[in-house]
Amino acid sequence: MTAKTREHRGPKPVPPGVEYHRVLAGEERRIGRGILAIVLLLGGMFGAIIAFQMVGAWIDGILWPGVPSDERLVLTPLAHALGLIAVALVIPWSMFLQRRLYGVRGATLSSVVSSFRFDLFARALLTITPALLVALAVFEFVSPGVTAVWQREDVIWMLVVTVLLVPLQATGEEYGLRGLVFRVAAGWGRGRWTSLILGIGVSAALFSVIHTASDPWWNVFYLLFSIVTGYVTWRTGGIEIAAVLHSVLNTLTFIFWIALNADISVRFDRSAGGLDGVLLITSTVVFVGTAAVVWFRTRKTGPARTPLEPHEDQGDRARSRLRNGL
C-alpha cells in the first residue's frame, strides 16, 4: 500500500483556520447523515443507561435479599455509579461516530488543537468552583429541602462515587451535546453565524429534551445552561470550560444532597413547580458571569481556530497561541 493510499484511507485533516463548530461543515449540508449521527448518539447513550440500570437492579436484588425495590434507596450507590458510567461512555462513542460518519478524528472533539487542554481546564476549575459553591450554598440555605434517612455506608459510598464519576458523566454529556451535536447541526448552515445559531440551538433543545422536565422553568434553566456552554465552547475552541461548568455543578449538587441527607426523589422532581426560583437566580449569575469572562478574555483574539497550517506543530507553541478562555 502506497503512502498516498494510506493517507486517503486515514482521517480527513481539519481545514486550517476553521472555528470549532465548523469542523464538520462542507459543501453539502448532509442533513440525513447528521440526523443519523444524533439518533445513534442518543440511542447509544440511553441504551447503555437502560442496560446498566438492569444490571444494577439485578445486583442490588442480590445485595438486598428479601427487600422490595420500593423499600430500598431511590438511588443506591451501585445504581448511581452504573448510571454515571453509562453516560461517561458517550465520550468514546461520540468520537467513534464522528470518525465513522464524517471521517474526522475523534480527538478533534476536545478542542481545535485536537487534544484536551488541561491547563485551560485547571484555570477554569479554580475560577468556577468557588462561584458555584457559593451559589449552591445560598440556595440550600435560603430554600432548605425535604430530608430523608441515610445510612452511614450509603453516605460514604455515594460520596466516593460522586467525586470519582460525576465529572466523567458531565463531561460525557458535553462531548455528545456541545461536541458532536453542536458540530453536526452547525454543518447544516452555510454561513458562520447561521451555523453557530443552528449548532447552539439544536444542542440546547436536545439537552432540554433528554432531561424530560415538565416544569417550564427547569427547561429555561437547561436552555440557558446549554446556550452558555455552547457559547464558551465556540469562543474557546473546545469543550474544556463547558466540561468544568457541568462537572462542578453536578458534583457540588450531589455533595450538598448527601451532606444534607436530602430526599433524592424530591430533588429529582422535574414536574411543574419543581424548580426553586433561588436556584435559577444564583445559577444564572454564575452561567452569565462565565460567558462574560470568556468574552472579555477573547474579545481581541476572537474564537480559537485550528492551526493556520495543516502541518503546523500542535505542541506547546500552538497551544499557547490558541489558548483562549479563563
TrEMBL record:
Q: Write out the entry's keywords from A to Z.
A: Membrane, Transmembrane, Transmembrane helix
- Domain CAAX prenyl protease 2/Lysostaphin resistance protein A-like, chain residue ranges per copy: 156-251
In this chain, composition skew of type Basic and acidic residues spans: 308-319
Question: Which organism does this record belong to?
Answer: Nocardiopsis lambiniae
Has keyword Nucleotide-binding?
no
According to the record, the residues making up region (Disordered) are 305-326
The molecule here is called: Type II CAAX endopeptidase family protein
Q: Which domain of life is it from?
A: Bacteria
Membrane-spanning regions, if any?
35-59, 79-99, 120-143, 155-172, 193-210, 216-234, 241-260, 272-296
